[in-house]
Design goal:
Order of helices and strands: EEEEEEEEEEE
Radius of gyration: 13 Å
Largest sheet: 7 strands, mixed
Structural class: mainly beta
Number of helices: 0
Shape: globular
Number of strands: 11
Distance between the termini: 40 Å
């Protein structure tokens, strides 16, 4: 059982920046970020898997995810934020070795955090 605790959400103006953090209680092979806006499905944002990082096209060049393995913590640095980035952001972890690269799918992950709200005002 791995517990994930997100922090760092809040209200920011368009063009601003925020950094989210997700602390895990155990080790994982991948840690990802998803987001869910009201009335929409949860969507992939970014993930770190082994030594690689992957991003959704909508956030490439604006968001950066990084991982501190010593602290079992993953970060999501968000810059040039837009109103359409407004959502609840969730951290997710996969603890077992992966046979496929479906890191963009919610079902690929084993554990989820409680979510943190990010609101971008125009």
């Amino acid at each position: 059982q791995v517990q994930l605790v997100e922090s760092g959400g809040g209200l920011v103006q368009a063009g601003g920046s925020l950094r989210l953090a997700c602390a895990a209680s155990g080790r994982s092979v991948a840690m990802g970020w998803f987001r869910q806006a009201p009335g929409k499905e949860r969507e992939f944002v970014a993930t770190t898997w082994t030594d690689s990082t992957y991003y959704a096209d909508s956030v490439k060049g604006r968001f950066t995810t990084s991982r501190d393995n010593a602290k079992n913590t993953v970060y999501l640095q968000m810059s040039s934020l837009r109103p359409e980035d407004t959502a609840v952001y969730y951290c997710a972890a996969r603890v077992s070795a992966a046979l496929n690269a479906a890191y963009y799918s919610t079902s690929w992950y084993n554990y989820w955090g409680q979510g943190t709200q990010v609101t971008v005002s125009s």
